[in-house]
Amino acid sequence: MNLAEGVQIVSFGILAAMMLGAAIGVVLLENIVYSAFLLGGVFISIAGIYLLLNADFVAAAQVLIYVGAVNVLILFAIMLVNKRQDFQPLRRGWIRKAATAVVCAGIFALLSTMIVSTPWAISTATPAGDASVVVIGLHFFSDFLLPFELASVLLLMALIGAVVLARREFLPDDEADRAQVEALRLPERPRELVPSGRDETVN
Amino acid sequence: MNPGIDLQGSFIESLKSFGLPAGAAKLLWMPFPMLVILVVAVLSVFALVWLERKISAAAQQRIGPEFIGPLGILAPLADGLKLAFKEDVVPAKSDPLLFTLGPAIVVIPVFLSYLIVPFGQNMVITDVGMGIFLWIALSSVTPIGLLMSGYSSNNKYSLLGGLRAAAQSISYELPLALSVLAVVLMSNSLSTVDIVNQQTGYGILGWNIWRQPVGFLIFWIAALAECERIPFDLPEAEEELVAGYQTEYSGMKFALFYIASYVNLTLSALLFAVLYLGGWEFFVPIGTIAGFFNISETAPWLQVVAAVLGISMTLLKAYFLVFIAILMRWTVPRVRIDQLLDLGWKFLLPVSLVNLLITAGLKIAFPVAFGS
Amino acid sequence: MLKFLKQVGDYTKEAIQAGKYIGQGLSVTFDHMRRRPVTVQYPYEKLILSERFRGRIHFEFDKCIACEVCVRVCPINLPVVDWEFNKESKKKQLNHYSIDFGVCIFCGNCVEFCPTNCLSMTEEYELSTYDRHELNYDSVALGRLPYKVTDDPMVTPLRQLAYLPKGVLDPHGLPAGSKRAGLRPEEIVEQAEKES
To answer: Which residues of chain C have pLDDT under 50?
Structure first.
């Protein structure tokens, strides 16, 4: 084992530990903001593993899209939502929990069978390396054209949907009135008016 | 193409001649350029702070720092020392872990991006294949640090500043990336070295600034917004938000933000020089000058001269852009947050898309001028 | 379609105009770079203040008749006049007089209205202290005269804008004997005498 391989194994160990720890943290931590930040950690570790697999373009794309966009949007959503609600215990909570457990177990079984059934033979083809961008581009426009175009259509639909949602200018009259009344009242404690100067007699 | 000076090769060769194995020699070499770049990047902060203060003073008919060292060049050092000795306050009811982590996450990607800044044919830490894309990816990590520090400060101004910074960052990343993409389209490569090489040969006439007149404007506006420089410095708008996400920070943590913002400005200016101003190229190609004086291009002293010229040209171009950024600071007023997002999404994004489209069309129509 | 094209045209026109204005602004700031700094290096250089400068108030104890006009005209009734009636001379006798310069707004009304001219404005403006109560000047402190800037060997006196020759904005390196813009008081008097 030469130096490069040692470095690779050590960094794989570190990245895997980071990824698993962060992923468990995302699920188990009470504080949702911590979970969101740890999700960023998971994405970064995945990007690191992509780098170890010689897929530097995918790694950079992972950082750009998942860390830079998705995770930031999640954080945005968390920080902009300001809704407090009392926790009410559900009456038949165990049904939900059982359903979740079944789904999780199913996914786990699916993934395990996939891992077991994959041959994991190391490909003999030379890694694309710096030319990976070209290879990816060629694949996108030849044998993966349909998924690529479908994904872009999906994104376009999402984009148009976002525009439609954001540009909703016409509100029904009564609803608009109600919204205005709600918006104008600031959520603050009712205060006693402090009398000042001549107005004392009025009070 | 003249390969220019190869420091790495000669370093490893000289160590090999002392009897070291090639692998060990390379291991010895590896930390060297990183250290040099790190030190240079930190020193550039001092230079930039001094320039900012002096140019601001000149624009306002003041003198600026004068007594701390000759022409006040030690003033930034004094600032730094003061910050280093300042008490590190963690506000009450804040989140100490995230509060400490925030500035680090802001600084690290900025310094990592220096990996791809070339100062010469072989004067780059790594000529990564996806070069400029790495910078875009790394700069998208910064808003997480900003959100983190904004959230953990337990201060509404910090939170607002953090949210504004993140919103600004993600909305100006798109025009930035699209305008870079147009350049990449012309050079057929994401590597910064290739992008510069594609501009060489015709001196100042070959620079991308002539081929991308719209792209370079968009890039510069978006880069200013990414660096949170004045027309777009809403996240730290002093008059409204105290100092945005930096409000609660003091001591070295504040210094980290400070360093990050200035290093980021230098980085943007350097990359602007690389993308649009021909990187290390002189105004006239060196080969032509050498040919004029009948000097062989491979003469060792010429290579040293070319390397020095390359570094100084890159820095000169970068600092010219820094100068414009500082001048901009005292010229334009701050935009409002809605104007900022309007400009980003409704103006720069469509224009940069059209620019990309036109570049692609021109590339097909005139492959000679727009890369083949 | 035409309308849309017109909209696009207008938009581009506006964008170009905005760019032009930013360029104009940049040229203005750039032009400032070549102008000389007007900085006065304060502790080493000080301005010679105009004769109308309203600085710390000077008070002459012996001239005061304790009429309290200064208190009445003061917007905040600031001067404290402590007097008692002297039965023998049947005159008010002043014991203490004080003005708190931490509160004074230097409007100069007291100086304007003082019937015996015992109050006057000086050119002292360096009123910083470590405790605001130290700014409460009593009659002794009020009687002190400030040190003249032109007499101070540590200080390079610089002319204020009013004393500079016409068209000169920078007080540094002014040749000796250069005259200020306009006529000096004695010249006005001379002219008036000549005319009459």
So the answer is: none
Domain carrying residue A36 = 7-83
Amino acid at B350: P
Q: Classify residue A40: in a domain, yes or no.
A: yes
B144 and A67 within 8 Å at the Cβ level: the answer is yes
Residue with tokens 């002293």: B301
H or E element, residue B317: helix B300-329
Task: Judge whether B274 and B117 are in contact, CB under 8 Å.
Answer: yes
* B15 burial level (CB within 10 Å; 0-12, 13-18, 19+): middle
- Model ipTM? 0.80
Flag whether A62 is in a domain: yes
Reading phi first (left if > 0) and then psi (alpha if -120 to 50, else beta), residue C48 is in: beta
Q: Which residues contact C151 (CB under 8 A, 6 or more apart)?
A: none
Number of domains in chain A: 1
Q: Tell me the residue type at C50.
A: S
Bridge partners of C159, per DSSP, are C48
Select from B185, B181, B94, B98 the least CA-distant residue to B147.
B98
Average pLDDT over residues B31-40: 83
Which CATH number do you get for residue A25?
Answer: 1.20.120.1200
C118 annotated among ligand-binding-site residues: no
Asked if B141's CB is within 8 angstroms of A63's CB, the reply is yes
Q: Which chains touch B (3 or more CB pairs under 8 A)?
A: A, C
Instruction: Check B27 against A131: CB less than 8 A apart.
Output: no
Amino acid making up residue B366: F
* Residue C15 vs residues B216, B231, B348, C20, C22: alpha-carbon distances, Å: 16, 16, 11, 9, 11
The average confidence (pLDDT) of chain B is 83
Distance, CA of B122 to CA of B6 (rounded, Å): 6
